[in-house]
Amino acid sequence: MKINFSTTRVPSIDILRAITMILMIFVNDLWSLKNIPVWLEHVEHGVDGMGLADTIFPAFLFIVGLSLPFSIASRRAKGDSDSQLIIHVLIRSIALLVMGVFLVNGETLNPEAMGMRKNIWYSISCACFILIWNRYPVQWSKIISNGLRIAGILVLVVLAYFYKGGEGEAIEKFAPHWWGILGLIGWAYLVSGLITIFSRDNFYVILGGWLFFAILSMVSHAGLLPGFLHFIPDAIRGGTLTGLTLGGVLTSYIFQYFRNKNDTRNLYLSLGGFALVLMLLSIITRPYWGLAKLGATPAWLFVCSAITIITLLIIYFIVEIKGHESWFSFIRPAGTDTLMCYLIPYFAYATTRVLGIHLPEFILVGIVGLIKSMFFALLCVMITGGLQRLGLKLKI
């Protein structure tokens, strides 16, 4: 069964991505608060359960998959061949891996040995990301835009060369200690993107790919993977993260099939049924490996996929059935320039640190603190929108 995809943006997916990005900034800012509900935060390693924060990253991975078929269809409509699409996926994956590794090394940076504070490392790295991957105005000279990109690359190379991390005298060099959020997305995107390209919009190939990685997640947690496969990055070998992204691709196929037919009833029945099956799979697998983000367990894969599908259906009803897209116009920059929005908090934290800004204690406690963190997330969206109007928009 082959499905034809629209080459235009789907408002529901953009808005879902925007809401997820806002929630990601919100939960990432909870570290600054005290006396807030435990269910909002990440569950500790080894604990069977999850909080709101544990549902955001998988939702983002799922949305990457939701967008993939539309992105590939758009590029094919512009004349891209399969080889060009493969190169595009490889370049985007490498970009995400590079950004992920630089941000991860900031976590273990040794300020005394490096002679640089962590917030400065993050600010310089993020500024370089913008220089390299900004979508420069077409009227700009190629010499200027390419010169800025080269400058960004050179600064990153210098940062990596002089990097010193670790604690005390156990100094570490620049390395992918782990891939970071962006890097993990990069690995999952790489595999999902290649499968989507080679599927040639065949639903059953996508279904088979998702089943393979869902089963791989269970096989991996059962300890049945042969040792010689350990050279494969865990984001792929573990099955769970790629399973989340391919689950998004699969959902996108079902979504578009019924959307093409203008069959809203069966769209809801099919995706609602899929979400129900995923919930049941989560219940069935939880006794074996638990429900945990940090363990990337199969139950976490299934339940977070189900939650994201249900959220998509709610947004689709509000936006495309009831026609209330304008309700979400103020958060749209978070859905159309998500990477820039993700980077803004690094600059914000660095700025407050350099300027010595400290918020009053009462703003960091309880419900007032939660309002502060949500306001901060929305402020990041506003800044992203302002940067877009100034011609700063990341594209990888």
What does this structure look like?
The model has no long low-confidence stretch (mean pLDDT 94). The relative contact order is 0.17. This protein is mainly alpha-helical and 396 residues long. Strand 1 and strand 2 form a beta hairpin. A two-stranded antiparallel ribbon has the order 1-2.
Strand content: under 5%
- End-to-end separation in angstroms reads 31 Å
Number of alpha- plus pi-helical segments: 15
Strand order of the largest sheet: 1-2
Extended strand count: 2
Low-confidence stretches at least 5 residues in length (pLDDT < 50)? none
Residue share in helix: 55-70%
Structural class: mainly alpha
Largest sheet, strands/sense/barrel: 2 strands, antiparallel
Mean pLDDT metric: 94
Radius of gyration: 21 Å
- What sequence of helices (H) and strands (E) makes up the elements? HHHHHHEEHHHHHHHHH
What general outline do the C-alpha atoms trace?
Answer: globular
